[in-house]
Amino acid sequence: LSHRQLQHALRIGEGLPLVEADAGRLPFRDASFDLACSAYGAVPFVADPVRVFREVHRVLRPGGRWVFSVTHPIRWAFPDEPGPEGLSVAASYFDRVPYVEQDESGNAVYVEHHRTLGDRVRD
């Protein structure tokens, strides 16, 4: 969740505890949760997903589950918007250079890290 999403949640007042934290250094005790969830968006934006995986494992109780989703890695080989020739491979599936969008000052405003399916299994 972003800071703005947390602020919105506080405004609507659902009464749930909300914590903004680095996923690689969670502020929870070991074995605190039975379930951890991450909707699409979190894992691909982390440069070191193994660090996050270890942290999630640490805070899960024995037998706990982590549910997360990501786009299938083959999607990286195709452009966002196919040209007139239709959908065709535009990049190497094995290219792990992050996708970066910058603002007019050159600051990164969006960074996504590609991992192959093999990377995900090994992680």
Nutshell version of this structure?
This protein has 123 residues and is an alpha+beta fold. It folds into two domains: 1-70, Vaccinia Virus protein VP39 (Rossmann fold), CATH 3.40.50.150; 73-123, no CATH class.
CATH architecture label of the largest domain: 3-Layer(aba) Sandwich
Average pLDDT: 89
Measured by DSSP, the beta-strand proportion falls in 15-25%
Number of domains: 2
Going by helix content, strand content and strand pairing, the class is alpha+beta
Largest sheet, described in full?
Answer: 2 strands, parallel
Low-confidence stretches: none
Number of strands: 4
CATH fold field value of the largest domain? Rossmann fold
Spatially, the strands of the biggest sheet line up as 1-2
Order of helices and strands: HEHEEEH
Number of helices: 3
Radius of gyration: 18 Å
Name the CATH class of the largest domain: Alpha Beta
Q: Tell me the name of the CATH homologous superfamily of the largest domain.
A: Vaccinia Virus protein VP39
Describe this structure in words.
By secondary structure, the chain is an alpha+beta fold. The protein is built from three helices and four strands, in the order H-E-H-E-E-E-H. It folds into two domains: 1-70, Rossmann fold (3-Layer(aba) Sandwich), CATH 3.40.50.150; 73-123, no CATH class. Helices cover 22% and strands 20% of the residues. The protein has a two-stranded parallel ribbon. A two-stranded antiparallel ribbon has the order 3-4. The longest helix has 11 residues, at 49-59. The relative contact order is 0.15.
